[in-house]
Amino acid sequence: MTTAASSPSFSTCDFCDAHKGDDQGELRVLPPVFQNYGGVVSFCGPVSTVKCFEDNTQVKAAVESPGQGRVLVVDGGASLRRALVGGNLAMAAAKNGWAGLVVNGCVRDIAELQTASVGIRAVGLLPMPTERRGEGRSDVPVQIQGVWVRPGDWLYADADGIVVSGRPL
Ligand SMILES: O=C([O-])CC(=O)C(=O)O
Is residue 3 assigned to a domain? Predict the structure, then answer.
């Protein structure tokens, strides 16, 4: 596992220490169900979203466009039947400057994901790809694992977990 030279320096634990009295939902912590599969462990950036179900058309379109340091949060409805990201899309995301992908669903091609210079978190590995039918929506608010994530939020992921905030931390 490699960490990009430009890997940001922050601590999700420190963020949570500073916000542990916050009951306004300014800092949201994603449940610990996301595994780390990418070549970058710590990543952060402003959020873009895709909402889809067993169809990664919009995920492909997003990672093939300039990422500009953003984190793509994919609400795949936690499907355990199709993989929304594989080696090709991971490489595209790295090449186009995405900081990371957080997938509420499955990914595949673990050997290729681990060599991609991009953060990749997902619920699980699964070898079956989607069939692209042009479905899905981009940049809508999504609720993943019970937590709201909106386009323009900031997401921070490190070895301890993933937190989301309405403003940069
Ligand atoms: O193309 C897909 O649907 C997913 C995949 O396997 C890849 O990204 O390599």
Answer: no
